[in-house]
Amino acid sequence: MPTSTVEDYLKCILLEQQRDPEALVSMRRISAALAVAPGTVTAMMKTLADSGLLAYEPYSGVRLTDSGRQLALHVLRRHRLIELFLVKVMGMDWSEVHSEAEELEHAVSDRLIERMDEMLGYPSADPHGDPIPDVHGLVEETVLPSLLDCELKVPVKVTRVGDQSREFLQLLEKRDLKPGSLLRVETRDEAADAVELRLDAGKRFTLGFRAASKIFVERAT
Amino acid sequence: MPTSTVEDYLKCILLEQQRDPEALVSMRRISAALAVAPGTVTAMMKTLADSGLLAYEPYSGVRLTDSGRQLALHVLRRHRLIELFLVKVMGMDWSEVHSEAEELEHAVSDRLIERMDEMLGYPSADPHGDPIPDVHGLVEETVLPSLLDCELKVPVKVTRVGDQSREFLQLLEKRDLKPGSLLRVETRDEAADAVELRLDAGKRFTLGFRAASKIFVERAT
DNA sequence: TCTATACTTTTGGGTAGTCGAAATTCAGGC
DNA sequence: GCCTGAATTTCGACTACCCAAAAGTATAGA
User: Fold this and answer.
1) Which candidate in B104, B106, B110, B113 is best for mutational testing of the A interface (most A CBs within 10 A)?
2) B51, HSE (Cβ side, Cα atoms, 13 Å)
3) Digit-coded pLDDT (tens) for B91-146
4) Cβ separation of A104 and B107 shorter than 8 Å?
5) From the DSSP assignment, how many helices (H) and strands (E) are in chain B?
6) CA of A26 vs chain B CAs: smallest distance (Å)
7) pLDDT score of A153
8) Rounded Cα gap, residues A151 and A183, in angstroms
9) Running DSSP on this structure, what letter comes out for residue B162?
10) What is the spatial distance between Cα A39 and Cα A27, in angstroms, rounded to a whole number?
11) If you count residue pairs, one on A and one on B, with CB atoms under 8 Å apart, how many are there?
12) A115, A116, A117, A166: which to substitute to probe chain B, counting the most B Cβ within 10 Å?
């Protein structure tokens, strides 16, 4: 059974890999994401490679093997189900569940996680709109446009947010930009680094490009 | 912040101390309870003593200090609230929640545990009848008679069981001897090592002294 | 009083994970 | 082709656990 440290490394690599499925994941990215020294990552990558969980190319980076990927997906499944459980059942705020799930994902048994899944009605996405892998590790990967790419002046629905930080989520909460919210992008001004939104209620709100790129939408039906 | 290993040692010592509040807790008991080598316990006791969590008397044993006791009570609170939560909210079997709680007690945040407490209506006992310390670490210690000490032929109610092992709990479940169940002790035969019970429904069942000593009752009102 | 035995402590050693700093490698610009 | 800067790897060292086995201690019974 993998230690919780190993689970953290695998999950982190999976997430980094998803940003750019072609490339190998560099030591630098992992070391930054997990806040450990670069040398520590190199050492860990060697032992994970020895366990057959990933392929390690010295000076280039790593890529998960099938078994490593499978394991990482199970951790991700636990993480996201727990987040949804904390929001839906425990009534916690979605801006505080990420760090809580970060701990719990290593402690819950398979039995308990399946019970949560059942209670939640086998959901397909967590409170941030991230897809939940099923019990066999299958995920539906959909690429959504962000507020930077979507059509202008057309009603869209927020379906996913790409930043778990407390501050960002609290902003979205306050401005009613959570998954499910409806809005339209009125204008984009590259020079001003500004994306102007009109919310469902008619209120207007402006985001910077950086923040806008972290909100993903789909056409409102 | 104490590691989960330290929390396990403290909880274990608290529990052993409760069996015999006068005596010091020996290395042997701790080593047996936690399934670690005796030398490992001695080493850990020295570091815990250095941290001011317990008093260590070489060749005699240890006793928790106030701060050690406080910490242990918080772990115990988490453990017992989690057990009750798993039974009441998650619908798990009481014979399987102990080991699950053993992991979760080190992972849940204070925030989440208080949320559970609230959802459960600030309960005073876990599914086995063990008292739940309050948020300040206060517990009501009540000494109850077991099926070995209680009056004969008088209606009593099971209120606490002193063995968390799966097999024992499954037996109690099957025989309807869970906390809340009503029964009478008909006879005790020391030579035969037998305690004869008459259950509420009228059925009769016989336990050995060893098992009978692990079921605690109070007079039925 | 002495000793057998059960318990405790000490010692030496091992694994997992971490860091800081020195040494190495790679890739882009000249 | 060489140099430089960034990334990577290597190295020595540390903490927190853990074990097995040798050595020491306490005590109950002869």
Assistant:
1) B104
2) 18
3) 999 989 999 999 999 999 999 999 999 999 999 999 999 999 999 999 988 889 99
4) yes
5) 8, 7
6) 30
7) 93
8) 12
9) S
10) 9
11) 43
12) A115
